[in-house]
Amino acid sequence: MASDPLRMPNYGGQALIEGILMRGKKTLAAAFRTPEGKIVVKTEELAPIYSKPYFQWPFIRGLLLLWDAMILGYRYLTIAANFQTEEDEKIEGPLFYATIVFSLGLAVLFFFVLPALLGKLLASLLGWDASLVNLLEGFIRIGLVIFYLWIIGRSKEIRRVFMYHGAEHKTINAFEVRKPLEISSVQQCSMQHPRCGTSFILTVMIVSLFVFFFIGNLSLPMMILTRLVLLIPIVMISYEYIRWTSSHLDNAFVRWLATPNLALQKLTTSSPTDEMVEVALAAFKKMLEIETSSTDGAEAI
Hints:
Elements: E1 12-16, E2 19-23, E3 27-33, E4 39-45, H1 60-85, H2 93-126, H3 130-152, H4 156-176, H5 183-186, H6 197-213, H7 220-229, H8 231-247, H9 252-257, H10 259-264, H11 274-291
Helix pairs in contact: 1-8, 2-3, 2-7, 3-6, 4-11, 6-8
């Protein structure tokens, strides 16, 4: 537990392939279930960025955290896959960052450029004005996100990742409501959490809908350019919104605002087995053991 009982630290995590990563302010711990059934835990000291003053600057912190989380997440997904295949494949150096940028570029093309093209095409066929074009684009974007999450959830392998995602949320929720960090008590907790990455993705889509709605009529090249350029401030705003709502859930209106975000998590979380919760607890307890010796916690999406 944190040294100040009145201030609950914000710990974050990520589901992996047969494993879970838990992140604090200065330390992360990742636990993996090997094909032999054993639990292996790896720990790592986080980059100094978390202790820098600019990490706490509003709006800037969202971009820094997102980029760092992508790097850590991709690297530990590779480590998790290696545990299952008993191989030691590594992507390092320029190739590692190129892979992340390429993956991010595909996501931007699919969820931002494609909806702009489809919205423009459909609206021209229907004869709609610019504001309705942008509105249609926004709903296409949200629909693509929901469809993507639903379709990947049909995969057996991804369903297991979503079960580990549920175990991650249950464990963090148990800690935040001060339940014993034991399998039976953790299983009683909710699978939804306001700081979830799924909530962040939906918030980005909704904020972009409002931002692009007021841009007006643009040529197709300018329309695509604005979607790319404005994505950065949209991410900044979305992070601050998630941070604000997660800190004010005692307010009924804020809980209502957070309802869509929590509802979408039903697509990316599933009820975990006790064995999966055991993995989550192994990662969380190890992170907590190291973390509480020197810090009060960390911010997380």
